[in-house]
Each structure stands twice: as C-alpha cells, then as structure tokens.
Amino acid sequence: MLIQLITTHPEAIVTIVRSTPTWVWGLLTGLLALGASQLRGRTASLVRVSLMPVAMTVFSVWGTYTAFGRSHLLGQAIAVWLVAAGIAFALLAPGRANASYDPARRTFTLPGSVVPLLLIVGIFLVKYFVGVELTMAPGLVQDPEYALTVAALYGAFTGTFVGRATRLWRLALRPAAAAIAA
C-alpha cells in the first residue's frame, strides 16, 4: 500500500517524513551508528557480541506486538514469527564464524562487515513502513496476508541475528568443551 502510494504520488514522501515523530529519526541515527561500527574490524567481548542479537530480537518482538497486539491474528503472527526465526536460525547457525576467539582475553576478533548494518536498516524499515501503513490503513491489522508477512519478516531478521551470533558463541564455548573432554 505505501509503495503504491509513493510510486503514484511521490510528493507524499514529504508529508510522511514530516509526520514522523522526531524520536524515530534519533533512533535511526543510533541504529545507523551501531551498524556503521560493524563495518570495520574490531575486538569485542562475549557480552558485547550478544547485545546486538538481543536488542534486535526485542526490536523485532516489539514491532510484531505493537503492530498486531490488538488483532485477532496476534497468535498466528507470533507462530509465523517463531517459524521464520527458526528457519533463518537453522540456515545460519551451523555455519562457520568469520572471527576468532581468544579465551585468555575472553574477546573476539571480528572482521568488518556490512551485513549487520543491512540487517539493522532492514528491520528499521520494516518497522517504519508498517507504522506508516497501519496509520494510513488501520484495518490492515486484520488482514492475514499482511499480518503474517510482516511477522515472517520480523522473525527472519531475528533468526538471522541470533544465527550469526550463535556462530560466535560456539567459538567461545569450544575451549570450555575441549577442557571438559580432556
């Protein structure tokens, strides 16, 4: 719906942006800074690499609940969210981390990557577009196709973040598992 409006009436973009609360732009700025920080190589603790997937999961759950919390489709949306998160997780978690872990210092050495920035922008844009669309057409919360598609997108983002983090967590747990086996 929003895409259709923008393609037929591009001038609507100005109205939409002007109607957006200021705090949304502050949130976007913070999220862009967080994503941009992932572009260069760095070291990080286990807690630090865990914060992003936790924060993005909360953002995803919040997006799903705020969009469909009053809809009769909330239960189905949560189920689809869980399935999509599980599929994305299952596809990404078994992979190999492109990082190293120093158990003595308890830090990861991480290469720079554009992927976290793209995921952060993606989840923000879904939340933003859904917010705009539901403001323009509140009845969409009762549309199963719309609700379940949005829930699947949110779930896929969560599964991707957690799947990527799981690869790192395995690196940190490997030395402990080797010590137990010995």
Describe this structure in words.
The protein has 182 residues and is mainly alpha-helical. The chain has one domain. It is built from seven helices and three strands. Strands 1-3-2 form a three-stranded antiparallel beta sheet. Helix 3 packs antiparallel against helix 6 and helix 4 packs antiparallel against helix 7. The longest helix has 38 residues. It is globular, with a radius of gyration of 19 Å. It starts with a helix and ends with a helix.
Summarize the structure.
The chain is mainly α.
Strand content: 5-15%
Rg, please?
19 Å
Largest sheet: 3 strands, antiparallel
How many DSSP-defined strands? 3
Q: How far apart lie the N and C ends?
A: 60 Å
Quaternary state reads single chain
Count of alpha and pi helical runs: 7
Give me the strand/helix succession: HHHEHHEEHH
Total domain units: 1
Q: Shape, please?
A: globular
The helix/strand class is: mainly alpha
> If strands are numbered along the chain, what order do they take across the biggest sheet?
1-3-2
Low-confidence segments = 177-182
Give the overall average pLDDT: 88
Helix coverage percent of residues?
Answer: over 70%
Secondary structure blueprint with pairings:
Layout: H1 2-8, H2 12-19, H3 22-37, E1 42-45, H4 46-68, H5 74-92, E2 100-102, E3 107-110, H6 115-136, H7 144-181
Antiparallel strand pairs: 1-3, 2-3
Helix pairs in contact: 3-6, 4-6, 4-7, 5-7, 6-7
Task: List the keywords.
single chain, 182 residues, mainly alpha, three-stranded antiparallel β-sheet, disordered C terminus
